[in-house]
Amino acid sequence: MHVALNAHLLSGAPTYRSAGVHRYIYYLLAHLPRAECRVTVFVGPHSRLPEDGYAVRRSRWPTAKPPVRVVWEQAVQPWALRRMGVDLVHGPVFVGPLLSPCPLVITIHDLSFLRYPHFFRLANRLYLRAFTRASVRRARRIIAVSAHAAEETVRLLGVDRRKIDVVYHGVDPALRPLPPEEVGTFRRREGLPERFVLYVGTLEPRKNLIRLVDAFATLRPATLCPAPVLILAGARGWYFHDLFARVEELGLKDRVIFPGYIPGDQLVYWYNAATVFAYPSLYEGFGMPVVEAQACGTPVLTSNRSALPEAAGDGALLVDPEDVGAIAEGLHRLLTDEPARAELRRRGLSHAARFTWEKAAADTVAVYRRALAEEGWG
Asked: Residue 39: beta bridge partners?
């Protein structure tokens, strides 16, 4: 089975482009079983692959620029697939070549551009809406990263549920509880406080960070000794200026810290050092940081909406993301109730152990085989 995978969204840059979908492609490639399929990877001139062992087609086109990438995937990719005689092509981020000469599989991560279109730049929204709709019609099989994402694909795009397979993300095995002395050394090196609430992810409106800041602002430091800080870690995405303005307006510049993008090999230290991990997103197709924090033994507070209850299982405190009071109450509880933190730590570690990239890759190959066996779709 010869599979081509469009990995032009792989990035090594310290920006939001190295966040969710980059990591999905990276870890999927790292774990695809070589004995079961021959993989050709299409990448841009500066894309960073996890390891050698693939047939790599590196384009000279500057596909880090979205308009160039769109032209490449729709005009150049079909020609390359035909020339190589590929059995199947996988579009791992919503879109595939509409003129593909072979069966197409695509991955749907979430449909936030349909649920919350005002949170996206116009060009991104129009591209995703048009090409995702066309791609799901053209695809022979669709991978959804959660049952919620599968239901949304049926509801919002009118796809037959029988055409969709749920394949959960995995967790990097490097994300695990660390010895206290190792965490202490990291904390001292980074100048981190003894206690802090951590968020990890792109700084963008859908992540609901203004409400998280508002909730944090209501906590009384005198009742939380030592007083924690809030660390919002991640690259700047889009429409983030209101977040910085809100922090300044509330006089929290000394208590809310923005360390920027955190490289993947450093995440384990940040998760381990945090007292609480907070991820009150309004909408997620899965919610990878929730499970990553759990895998490190960090108590998690997250939303009771979209796929986040599915990602969190029974290992997190769920709150209404639109209720600032509920977020604040949840933060206060997890900062003051050590037995509650210990119980969430135990449950979270057990839950996170279910998610491995080996399983995700094996399930993905099973989808490829299913796509090749089903002549009726696509």
From this structure: 3
pLDDT digits (tens, 9 = 90+) for 199-254: 999 999 999 999 999 999 999 876 777 889 999 999 888 888 999 999 999 999 99
Query: pLDDT-derived band of residue 37, with 50, 70 and 90 as boundaries?
Result: confident
284 and 138 together in one domain: no
Same domain (yes/no): 21, 150:
yes
Mean pLDDT of all residues in 29-35 = 82
The CA distance from 140 to 160, in Å, is 11
What single letter denotes the amino acid at residue 118?
Answer: H
In this structure, what token pair is assigned to residue 203?
């700084």
154 and 184 housed in the same domain: no
**CA pair distance 158, 236, nearest whole angstrom:** 33
- Supply the pLDDT for residue 377: 47
pLDDT of the residue at 272: 98
**Of residues 155, 132, 139, the one with CA closest to residue 89:** 139
- In this structure, the answer to whether residues 363 and 346 fall within a common structural domain is no
Report the CATH number that the domain containing residue 286 is assigned in CATH: 3.40.50.2000
- Cα(303)–Cα(374) distance, integer angstroms: 38
DSSP string covering 248-278: HHTT-TTTEEEEE---GGGHHHHHHH-SEEE
Q: What Å distances lie between residue 309 and 86, 314, 321, 351, 359, CA to CA?
A: 38, 8, 12, 12, 21
Burial (Cβ within 10 Å: 0-12, 13-18, ≥19) of residue 377: middle
User: For the segment 115-150, what is each residue's pLDDT rounded down to a tens digit?
Assistant: 999 988 888 899 999 999 999 999 999 999 999 999
pTM: 0.92
Q: Quick one: CA torsion of 307, 308, 314, 317, rounded to 10 degrees? A: -150
18 near 71, Cβ under 8 Å?
no
Q: Report which of 140, 143, 153, 142 is spatially closest to residue 112, judged by C-alpha positions.
A: 153
Examine the domain organization and report whether 155 and 216 are in the same domain.
no
